[in-house]
Specification:
12 helices, 17 strands, 24% helix
Length: 412
């Protein structure tokens, strides 16, 4: 959990086709499969934000190289205005191989182990269109189902904590701490308003004309995820004195219509009734931008468990947010820092950038923007991003790691 972003880069840079100019000392690579390029659309708000960084002597550039507090432009897996993901980079070029079979609409429901030692996987059952199929393996099975479905599949196969498996009617075969030490980084969004027509509003800007422009040259607002125009990291905060980055930021140039539809909003967020009407609806169709932020080096850990032994049922995902109080302190510090930076910079005040002054429902009786207000805001609004880790933890092979590790250093 103490590994920095720069520590990780040498392990993955061999995949990259980095198509951008970067700082001296960059660890990016070129000539490989995974394309990384520049944004096809840049929000006009970006210039005001970067003027703010300059005004406050905050380093900007390639955040994978710059240490500590720094902000920069997003690098994106977008080529010619279209997403360039793992399928385009790695799978599509080898579809012609005779020994490669890809089964669509298929869910693996169980891994089978050899009967003698239960130390070797020999096959899997997968379900496709309501029918189960068995596939055997002569050499190995690579499990790569993500931070949620990987532990779920292991548990369904009898690999995990003995007491938990027995509680859902599964015979334990291998006792390992599957689903434990699950870490998820709590994050949330802050809505800022501005007095200029610089953001993207769906009713105003995502028009037929905008789509035809994208169709013709693969540029414009349709070519950029969330109209993101900046990212950044913070290291030292009031509660955490460290050189390790512990807060990340993302800036999206979308106005107040992230969810104009009450039904869609309620379904996507699962918020309590009334949240949309009181907090979000008054911001609809108004220009602004969104700042997303989250803690990186979280201390609170949770679990992933089965609810039943039915493969079709979703598992229980409990990140156990803020069970360690320093995680809450970290997130509050991150909010206080970025709100102060934006609301007190000359550059951002040219467009009257300010936090929405509507008190979040349930926090009306707390002093606005106080630490107690932010704690109430965080507890209601924070969620889990796509950066959870450690549900199938890797150990170093030592005796001490056997109580917490699911995998050895060779991913076995």
């Amino acid at each position: 959990m103490d590994t920095t972003l720069v520590d990780e880069i040498p392990d993955v840079s061999y995949l990259e086709i980095f198509n951008l100019k970067t700082n001296t000392g960059s660890t990016h690579a070129t000539g490989n499969e995974l394309y990384i390029g520049k944004l096809g659309y840049i929000s006009p708000i970006q210039q005001y934000l970067f003027d703010t960084f300059k005004e406050n002597d905050i380093p900007t550039g390639d955040v994978s190289v710059l240490p500590g507090r720094a902000f920069g432009y997003p690098d994106v897996n977008i080529k010619n205005g279209e997403r360039w993901g793992t399928y385009q980079a790695f799978i599509k070029p080898i579809l012609h191989r005779e020994k490669l079979t890809i089964s669509l609409f298929s869910d693996v429901v169980k891994i089978y182990l050899n009967n003698k030692s239960n130390t070797r996987a020999i096959g899997v059952t997968y379900r496709k269109h309501g029918v189960n199929y068995f596939v055997s393996a002569k050499k190995e099975i690579i499990l790569s189902a993500g931070v949620v479905d990987s532990p779920k599949l292991l548990l369904l196969s009898g690999i995990g904590p003995k007491n938990h498996l027995e509680s859902v009617g599964i015979k334990p075969l291998v006792y390992l701490p599957v689903g434990k030490s699950y870490f998820s980084q709590p994050y949330l969004g802050l809505k800022f308003q501005i007095n200029e027509s610089l953001s993207i509003l769906s009713n105003r800007d995502l028009t037929d004309h905008a789509f035809l422009k994208y169709y013709a040259n693969r540029k414009g607002s349709f070519s950029t995820p969330f109209t993101r125009f900046a990212i950044g990291f913070n290291s030292e905060t009031k509660s955490t004195k460290t050189n390790s980055r512990n807060i990340y930021y993302a800036f999206d140039g979308v106005g107040g219509d992230v969810s104009d539809s009450h039904a869609l909003f309620s379904k996507d967020t699962n918020f309590k009734p009334g949240i949309y009407e009181k907090y979000y609806k008054p911001l609809a169709n108004k220009d602004g931008f969104l700042v997303e932020l989250g803690c990186i080096d979280v201390k609170s850990s949770g679990v992933i468990r089965l609810v039943t032994n039915n493969p079709q049922d979703p598992p229980l995902i409990d990140p156990n947010f803020f069970s360690i109080p320093t995680d809450m302190d970290c997130l509050i510090d991150g909010i206080v820092y970025i709100v102060d930076l934006i609301e007190n910079s000359k550059a951002m005040q040219e467009i009257d950038a300010h936090l929405s002054r509507i008190a979040f429902p349930g926090c009306e009786n707390l002093k606005f923007k106080s630490r107690s207000y932010w704690e109430g805001y965080i507890r209601q609004l924070s969620g889990s991003p796509d950066s959870s880790i450690s549900s199938c933890r890797m150990g170093d092979g030592s005796e001490n790691s056997k109580t917490t590790a699911v995998l050895d250093p060779l991913f076995r």
